[in-house]
Design brief:
heterodimer; A: mainly alpha; Rna Polymerase Sigma Factor, Chain: A; Arc Repressor Mutant, subunit A; 9 helices; B: alpha/beta; Double Stranded RNA Binding Domain; 4-stranded mixed β-sheet; 38% helix; binds zinc ion
Chain lengths: 192, 253
């Protein structure tokens, strides 16, 4: 069992006992992860925050309707990602975010205290380019690529989140990564 | 490498204040209300973990500022739950014990001290050393004093019922004069407590039951005045054939 899994079962056990008393712990444990996941899918920090917040509000409402044994048995990470993903899909259908974005919108890259401001700016710029490229990828490839290569989830967990066979997930991750690589290279060469 | 670059996108933090906004959105926000008490108006705050703060303040804005400073989170005005109002107004110790308290700002030791103080009945007092002994840290008398001074929920957790054994009432988180007012209001004979303390009297005994107590123990109040004996030490009481009371536990077992 990884440290991550241990935290997950601790949080699930706590929620099994008392949702209201332990909901804050759920938000502080998974807030950054859910926000990062959504940001990497939508590349817009305001939309990402809105969706991340909606995700936890929906989670809270759902937990209220679950009996303690069901709460204790939750795979919290996968469950939160599934809720977040449904919201991203709904927005994508409503075309609430477009494939164009400014560098400012895609800003979040944690600054290292020892890092030169210029180096950080360069890193932020390449992160923004990468997010823009991700956004040009169709959602059915973008999501498994984000989960596998950014978030580091296992294929089994991604299959659970996406409700797809593991084989399909693997194929989409590979295809998505290849498309991303091609797109990224084309753009970088065009800029040279 | 693309895959290495992708991994850097993981290092993202949720925006500042994200958790607070989520908690507010689901209604799990900290609330406070103003309550009248024998020592004036105090602000009481509570959240899903229990009652988190009792603070006297000159104004609502002063309270909000002090609360945010001490607990590093905001609180919003709310409607005081009826049970909470009743317990504060009655000062009933048994009811106060049944409430839930949010003592997350306290250390394990401080929490043990406060939980023990919660056991002291209304109108009675216990020395600092009594708390130290009861929680199994007989030498930590000073630390007991500091823990009580930091009590986030005074009045409800009655740190005003913990006093010095030399006949003075000692410090109080909400001010020494307020301690006198509160104890008098609860029916403690403060003048007698101070007089006997100065005279070195530590225990009262009942000549009928041959049991000795801390002076404010309710068992002793039931004894007829002419049957009450006073003792300066445990040895004096035991030599006279008295046994310690099981309710106020005046000496180490
Ligand atoms: Zn007694």
């Amino acid at each position: 069992m990884t440290a991550d899994d241990r935290v997950q079962s601790e949080v699930a056990a706590a929620l099994g006992r008392d949702v209201d008393a332990n909901f804050e712990r759920l938000v502080t444990t998974y807030g950054d992860r859910v926000f990062a996941f959504v940001l990497n899918l939508v590349a817009d920090r305001f939309v990402a925050e809105e969706i991340a917040q909606e995700t936890f509000v929906a989670a809270y409402r759902a937990l209220g309707g679950y009996a303690p044994p069901r709460r204790r048995a939750l795979s919290i990470r996968a469950w939160l990602y599934t809720i977040a993903l449904n919201r991203v899909r709904n927005r994508a259908r409503a075309r609430e975010f477009s494939a164009s974005l400014s560098l400012d919108d895609a800003l979040p890259v944690a600054a290292d205290a020892r890092e030169e401001p210029s180096a950080h700016a360069e890193r932020a710029e390449s992160a923004a380019e990468l997010r823009a490229a991700l956004l040009r990828l169709a959602l059915r490839y973008r999501t498994p690529v984000v989960l596998r290569h950014i978030d580091g989830r296992s294929y089994a967990e991604i299959a659970e989140i996406l409700d797809q066979p593991v084989g399909t997930v693997k194929a989409n991750v590979h295809r998505g990564l290849a498309l991303l690589q091609a797109d990224y290279e084309t753009r970088n060469h065009a800029a040279d | 490498m693309l895959q290495t670059e992708l991994r850097t996108l993981r290092q993202v933090r949720a925006p500042e204040g994200f958790a607070g906004r989520v908690l507010a959105a689901v209604g799990l926000v900290e609330r406070y209300a103003l309550v009248e008490t024998p020592i004036g108006g105090v602000y009481v705050a509570w959240n899903e973990h229990g009652i988190s703060a009792v603070m006297p303040s000159a104004s609502e804005s002063a309270f909000r500022r002090r609360f945010a400073e001490r607990f590093e989170r905001p609180a919003e005005r709310g409607e005081l739950p009826a049970t909470l109002r009743r317990v504060i107004e009655s000062g009933d110790a048994a009811e106060a014990r049944r409430l839930r308290y949010d003592l997350r700002v306290c250390s394990e030791f401080e929490t043990a001290v406060l939980r023990k103080a919660l056991e002291i009945p209304r109108g009675q007092v216990r020395p600092y050393g009594w708390i130290a002994r009861e929680i199994g840290r007989p030498k930590a008398v000073r630390a007991v004093g500091s823990a009580l001074a930091k009590n986030p929920v005074p009045l409800l957790i009655p740190c005003h019922r913990v006093v010095r054994s030399d006949g003075t009432l000692g410090e109080y988180a909400l001010g020494a004069p307020q301690k006198v007012t509160l104890l008098k209001g609860e029916g403690l004979d403060v003048a007698r407590f101070e007089r006997e303390g100065r005279a070195g009297i530590r225990f009262h005994g009942s000549a009928t039951t041959k049991i000795f107590c801390l002076p404010s123990c309710s068992d002793m109040r039931r004894a007829k005045a002419q049957n009450v004996r006073t003792f300066r030490s445990e040895g004096e009481a035991r030599d006279a054939g008295y046994r310690p009371c099981k309710h106020c536990r005046p000496v180490a077992a």
